[in-house]
């Protein structure tokens, strides 16, 4: 795990630290080719420069977000505002994280991608990547 992501984890409460550590471990194992970094103050993983998955601490818990998750067809992932294709789940305990689900979602994240990398260039219009 990158130092900057470890530093993000160290700023979390003990319970949230457990969630973050588990999520990072699962994401790194499923997406070994992904680049990870702190982006907009949160850990995010990218494939070919396109954001795929990340998590952030909210008042309600640790939110795991998939940039293209609205198209995964997964009931537990709640779609965002509708303007983009994101979907997320919020965890308040490490016991809520079902690793097999996260692994399945990460496989879908690799296969189903919207082009966020070029969003500004396309003036806010999203296009699905082939």
Describe this entry's structure for a reader.
With 130 residues, the chain is an alpha+beta fold. Helices cover 29% and strands 25% of the residues. The protein is built from three helices and six strands. It has helices at residues 3-10, 14-30, 99-111; strands at 35-39, 42-47, 50-58, 61-66, 78-79, 87-91. A six-stranded antiparallel sheet has the order 1-2-3-4-6-5, with helices on one face. It starts with a helix and ends in a 19-residue tail after the last helix.
What are the low-pLDDT stretches, counting only 5+ consecutive residues below 50? none
Which range does the strand content fall in?
A: 25-35%
Shape: globular
For the termini, the CA-CA separation is 30 Å
Give the class from helix and strand content and strand pairing. Answer: alpha+beta
Number of strands: 6
State the assembly state of the protein chains: single chain
- Please tally the helical runs, counting DSSP H or I stretches of 4 or more residues: 3
Task: Spell out the helices and strands N to C.
Answer: HHEEEEEEH
Biggest beta sheet attributes: 6 strands, antiparallel
Order of strands side by side in the largest beta sheet?
1-2-3-4-6-5
Q: Compute the CA-based radius of gyration.
A: 14 Å
| Percent of residues in helices | 25-40%
Mean pLDDT equals: 92
